[in-house]
Amino acid sequence: RASYIEVSIQRWVAAGGEMSDCIEAVDGFHPSTTGLSLMAEVMWEDIMRNFPHVLGPVNPNNARISELFGRQGGHD
User: Could you give phi then psi for residue 23, rounded to 5 degrees?
Assistant: First the structure.
């Protein structure tokens, strides 16, 4: 099984990006902001597909919360 960074880089390159965009070469070869964002997406997909139970049930009050507070510019 490929690691999250491997999958992220493969997707990025397949979409036309450069592999180097995913690596922060000046900081000990850690993932860049782009790489971290891509890895988070891959990790979320993995969790939702293979481990959804770790997140617990959907909040039954979500509709009411949206009704009361609307969109405030956060993550939707």
Answer: -120, 135
